[in-house]
């Protein structure tokens, strides 16, 4: 009898496992689609992933705003994998360079429920949503140049910071973000990463996504392709070296110049390319209020988007705390983009960076405490 019950239990477990697999792993089966008939769009691009942007977490679940009258075609909320889109997604074409502003969106939504608790700050922005990016094939983000993936809802904002790490300034930005328990993407310059690896480590440790922004921040347009590849790869290796751990396959071209051959190359390397939805032009500004006003004005105009700023810039560093308060007061919500898998580096460039950086010794004490003039 006991044996029979045991056998029954095992059979049930196997059945539940198989059924669970069908539900979780192969939603197509639930849809009764013949497995052998992939959507034609996908068949034409066998190496393309089914979905590039995946919602990983969403909080709070009850506070999803429903800004009325926004286009239903805009949203690509993919939190429910068992619900394949009614129509096959548009064939993922190679990134195209397009001079196009983000589509106008509804006004920022009404304020929503409080974010996750953030010690010491009852008005913290927090992170409303985390999305995981499958960088296979080098997807492009940012409507100034790409219009492949429109995944932000009205009122949602992705903060991005370029050109660091830099003493004081980067940490001013990082501390302001920490005070709001929120997250951003950083695109550091490789050389700067080798100057200030400790700062970049802290950026990564605080949970921000760390991409890269070339080795020496040259405009790669018109340069030999090999030189462009070298700038990209050495930048990636330098950032990885400085962080000392996994970094994201996220890349931004200096000056948002996108040589087509290098766009293709990044696709082959499975590295996502970030342009921007709105450029703050903070590098032209001296006063923090100008940065605040510029960002808030553009967000008001576009309603949502990926914002380009520079942690390297003094005015931006000084503006960040107030800007985050402004975003909160305006009802905006922060979306954190993180990579599904870390970037891979190329060994030859890792080696080059190690030589350039002249690895620190175990001491790590400042020179002033190591070398002291005792007689002159
Ligand atoms: Zn830059």
Outline of this structure?
With 376 residues, the protein is an alpha/beta fold.
Overall tally of domains? 2
CATH architecture of the largest domain: Alpha-Beta Barrel
Straight-line distance between termini: 96 Å
Q: Tell me about the biggest sheet?
A: 8 strands, mixed
Q: Catalogue the unreliable spans.
A: 8-49, 60-107, 109-115
Instruction: Write the CATH homologous superfamily of the largest domain.
Output: Glycoside hydrolase/deacetylase
Determine the structural class based on helices, strands and strand pairing.
Answer: alpha/beta
How large is the count of helical segments?
12
The total count of strands amounts to 11
Q: Identify the CATH class of the largest domain.
A: Alpha Beta
What Rg is obtained from the alpha carbons, in whole angstroms? Answer: 23 Å
Helix content: 25-40%
CATH topology of the largest domain: TIM Barrel
- Apparent shape: globular
* Element order: H for helix, E for strand: HHHEEEEHEHHEHEHEEHEHEHH
Bound molecules: zinc ion
Mean pLDDT: 78
Percentage beta strand: 5-15%
